[in-house]
Each structure stands twice: as C-alpha cells, then as structure tokens.
Design goal:
Blueprint (H helix, E strand, L loop, with lengths): L2 H18 L1 H17 L3 H17 L3 H16 L4 H17 L3 H18 L2 H17 L3 H16 L7 H18 L3 H17 L8 H12 L3 H11 L9 H17 L3 H15 L4 H17 L3 H51 L9 H14 L4 E9 L2 H8 L1 H18 L4 E7 L2 E7 L3 H18 L14 E9 L5 H17 L5 E3 H4 L7
Parallel strand pairs: 4-5
Antiparallel strand pairs: 1-3, 1-4, 2-3
Helix pairs in contact: 1-2, 1-3, 2-3, 3-4, 3-5, 4-5, 5-6, 5-7, 6-7, 7-8, 8-9, 9-10, 9-11, 11-12, 11-13, 13-14, 14-15, 15-16, 18-19, 19-20
InterPro entries: Diguanylate_Cyclase (IPR050469), GGDEF_dom (IPR000160), Nucleotide_cyclase (IPR029787), Rev_trsase/Diguanyl_cyclase (IPR043128), TPR-like_helical_dom_sf (IPR011990)
Protein name: Diguanylate cyclase (GGDEF)-like protein
Pfam family, one: GGDEF
Length: about 525
C-alpha cells in the first residue's frame, strides 16, 4: 500500500469516527500524525491537527482545546490547505463560544464562512450558519437565531449529502420549531412541523431517533393538546435509567421541564430535573449555575421552602464561580490573542526579510515576481509598466575598483531608485547589477521623467568610473515598456522592456529606450 493511499484511508476512517466514536477519532488522529510526519506529508499532518482539535472540543476539554487550537492555527496559517483551515476556524469559533468569548467566536465563524464561500462548500455554510444561530439561541435571543437557522436550512438542502443528511435536517427543523415557539410564530411552527412530518414519512428510520417523541410533546403542548403531550412524556419517562445521551438531555429536557412545572407534575418534573442537573453539573460553571436555577424553580413551584435557603446560597456561590470562570477564560483568550499577534508579527518580519535585498535594502526578485503578478491581477483597467536598468560597465568597475566599492555603487543606485520613486513605482534588485521597477498607472512620459531624475542624481553623486566608455562616472542604461492590462501578460511586458534595454546599450549606453516609442529606431546612431 502506497504512503498516499494509507494516509487517505486513515483520513476516511477519521471522518467516519468523527460522528460515532470520539476516542477512536483521537487514536486515528495520533496515528495519522505520526505516519504523516515520518513520511513528510503536510496535508496528513494538517488533517490530524484539525481533528485532534475537534476531539477536544467535542469532549468539552477546554484545557486541552487551548494548545490544540494554537497548534492547528500555527500550522494552517503557514500552509495553504484552505479546506482544513476552514474547519479549524469553525472549531475555533465553537471553542470560543464555549468559553463565552462570543466576539472572537464570531470572528472565526465569519473567517470560516468566507472560506466556505470561496470554496463553494454548501454543507460547511450550513454548519456555520447553524453554529451562529446556536450562539444566539443559547443566549435566549431567538429573534436573532431564527434567520440564521433558516439560512442553514436553505444551504443544507443544497448540500447533496447522503446518509446523515436526513438526520441533520431533523435536528435543524427541531431548532427551527423551538425558536418559532419561543417567538410565538404560529405560521412558522406549522410550516416546520409539516416539514418534520414529511421528513419522517420519507425516512421512517428517523422515528427511532430518541429526540422525536420529546419534540412531539413540546409541539403538542404548544398547540394546547396537553393530554396527548402528557401521555407521551409519561410513557417516555417510565425508565429507571435515562436512555438519552448527554447532548439530547441538555438540548431537550429544559423544554420538557418547563412544561412539567407549568402543569405542576411534580413526580415527572423531579425525574427530568435530576437527569438534567446530573449532566449540567458536570459541565462549565455557567452550566452548574443553570442547574441550580432549575432546582430553585422546582422548589418554588412546589412550595419546598425548606430547600430554598440552601439553593439560594448554592446559586450565589455558583454565580461567583461562573464570573471567575468567565474572567479566567477571558484572560486566557487575551493571552492567546497576544501570543497569536506576536507570532504573526514575527512571521510578518520574516516575510519582509525574505522580500528584501540584504545588500541594497530594497525589494528583491522574489518580491518583484509576486508584486508584478498582484499588480497585473488587481489593477483593473489601468496600465502597467516595467523598467529594467543595469549599471554601465559594472564588471570593469568591479575589476578596477574592487568588489567592496562595487557593493557601494549598488547601494547608491538602489538609494536613487527608492528616493526618486513615488507610490506608483516599486524598485527591486533583480540580480547582480540589474534592477527592475514596476510602474502602475504611469504614462511613458512619466516613466521617462523618473529615469531622468535618477540620471540627474547619479550625475550629482559623480562616482568616478575611469573604465567606463560611456562617461567618466557611474551611469545607467534602461529599457522600459508600458501597456494597458488588456493588451498582454507580465512575461511579455518584461521581454519588451528587456529588448528596449538592449537598444539602449547598442546605442552607446548611459541612456534609456522605450519599447513603444523607440521601436522603429533600431539602427545605431
């Protein structure tokens, strides 16, 4: 089995375990990471870091999330695997939502959404709009949550997924129903209930989903059918050990508890309360505070005054703990942002160094190549010009005066190019004694004037060059070409400027030629 095939196979297994078995997901990620690092497969390394982060988020492991997120972000900020970067930004949003840093969470959701738009990933857009909606829903702001759930639903319909599509659709429709009920939007409740009914008819296996009867009870109660709703709840609360998992309990039981308290059904309400609080108390300090709040409401509803004093004290302590937790998480988030900023600053400095010519302190050939490509793509309907310059008889200068003096001449020429340039001109050292200037939205006359100014500066400097046959001082020859962007590509533009430089040299050097205006004057003077 080839390395690439083995990595691809491991990735598919991780995707499958992602929905079914988080411990297996983690094991496979560690296996993929070790194998990919050993075989220098960057995509495999990036995928492993991405889904290790997913594992820590799913397990609500905030301590493990922080270093996993930092590692994943550092990796993907230095690699162009946009599909994985999109996933990491989404996971980062979920993590920051969990620690109640909602501003940072939204920043990452929007970054991920931008990549999803660029990649045309409808399923990812569904997930992101759903996550944004959940953030509002958790803050009890159903008015803001509803339109984002609706957008998520629209994108899910265009995702063309198999297998899990119906399950996703069911969860999303249930969220839409619950939001619509909270807003007392009867027409929307009816619409989404009909959609759920059709979905269950088309996919009978969904009727076995444990969330379905509970959701039915909530819907029936909202339509005033208390008896039918109560019978469903009584039937499904007859267990000795709760069959639902933690996620379903935390999602569904708050709605059920509200109904049972309203109906004064103490026995069933107590059963739901204990199961709900059992899981909430294992979660964040904010969740533990929410659990005590539910207990207080239960005690108040059924007149259990002897329990209230202790519950109020517990709520006070939980509130302090929750505030401390928020402060701790905010401080940690601030530290992470600061570290990220410092890392980015370092990367920016390294990138700048990689773009600079260390001798002449101007941009180098690498920057010239990237900047020319950018100018060609972004300049719209404007013009683009290139000037190519080299120092006349520079080899003779080096041979006679020495390389240290030659380096000083290169620095002085580079300084002239920089100081005479305006913000439309980007001077670069191309290599040896050759320089290139990218000129955006300039006419040939303006480029000619720029070269005259450079030549004037060199005449003022009057650097002696007794071996030059063009003059007794250091001089330049230059060729340039300018075109509208619709006329040609940058490579052809460079060739035209290079040809014009050749004409300047053939005519005695210490001069410049324009490809457009001097093309007919190829004979020597």
């Amino acid at each position: 089995m080839g390395d690439g095939f083995k990595i691809k196979d491991c990735i598919e297994k991780i995707k499958e375990a992602h929905f079914k078995d988080q411990d297996e997901e983690r094991r496979l990620c560690l296996e993929l990471l070790a194998y990919s690092e050993a075989h220098h497969n960057a995509y495999g390394v990036g995928f492993a870091h991405t889904y290790l982060l997913d594992y820590h988020i799913f397990m609500h492991d905030t301590e493990g999330c922080s270093p996993a997120l930092k590692t994943a972000l550092e990796f993907h900020n230095s690699h162009e695997f946009l599909d994985l970067r999109m996933q990491v930004y989404n996971f980062a949003g979920i993590y920051y939502s969990y620690i109640h840093d909602d501003i940072t969470a939204f920043e990452y959701f929007l970054k991920s959404l931008e990549l999803a738009e660029a990649l045309g990933d409808s399923f990812m857009k569904y997930r992101l709009y759903n996550n944004i909606a959940v953030s509002f829903h958790n803050k009890k702001d159903c008015e803001m949550a509803l339109p984002y759930y609706q957008r998520a639903y629209d994108y899910l319909k265009f995702s063309h997924l198999e297998g899990l599509y119906a399950q996703y659709q069911l969860f999303l429709l249930q969220n839409l129903v619950n939001c619509s009920i909270a807003l007392n939007a009867g027409d929307l409740v009816l619409e989404y209930c009909k959609n759920i009914s059709r979905l269950l008819d088309d996919n009978p296996f969904l009727r076995e989903d444990p969330s379905v009867p509970w959701q039915n009870a909530v819907i029936l109660a909202w339509f005033g059918k208390k008896k039918e709703a109560y019978e469903i709840l009584k039937c499904h609360l007859s267990w000795e050990k709760d069959p639902l998992d933690a996620t379903d309990i935390i999602e569904l039981y708050p709605h059920i508890l509200v109904l049972l308290l309203e109906w004064k059904e103490k026995e069933l309400a107590e059963k739901v309360l204990e199961s709900l609080c059992c899981y909430l108390e294992r979660e964040s300090p904010q969740a533990r505070q929410e659990a005590i709040d539910y207990r207080i409401r239960f005690y108040e509803t059924f007149g259990l005054t002897e329990c209230l004093a202790g519950a109020y004290e517990q709520y006070y302590q939980a509130s302090k703990e929750a505030l401390g937790s928020v402060a701790h998480n905010q401080i940690r988030a601030m530290k992470e942002k600061l570290e990220s900023f410092e890392v980015q600053q370092k990367l920016n400095r390294l990138q700048k160094l990689s773009y600079m010519d260390s001798l002449c302190d101007i941009y180098n050939r690498r920057y010239y190549t990237e900047q020319l490509e950018r100018a060609w793509k972004e300049n719209g309907s404007g013009s683009l010009g290139i000037i190519i310059l080299d120092i006349d008889y520079f080899k003779e200068y080096n041979d006679y005066y020495g390389h240290n003096s030659g380096d000083m001449v290169l620095k002085k020429v580079a300084l002239c190019l920089k100081e005479e340039a305006d913000d439309r001109i980007t001077p670069c050292r191309y290599g040896g004694d050759e320089f290139c200037c990218i000129c955006e939205n300039m006419t040939p006359e303006e480029m000619s004037n720029y070269l005259k100014d450079i030549r004037g500066r060199l005449e003022t400097l009057a650097v002696e060059h007794v071996k030059s046959q063009a003059a007794g001082i250091v001089t330049l020859s230059a060729g340039y070409s300018v075109r509208t962007l619709s006329e040609l590509d940058p490579q052809n533009l460079f060739h035209e400027a290079d040809e014009a430089l050749y004409w300047a040299k053939m005519r005695g050097k210490n001069r410049d030629c324009c490809y457009q205006t001097d093309g007919k004057k190829k004979a020597l003077p």
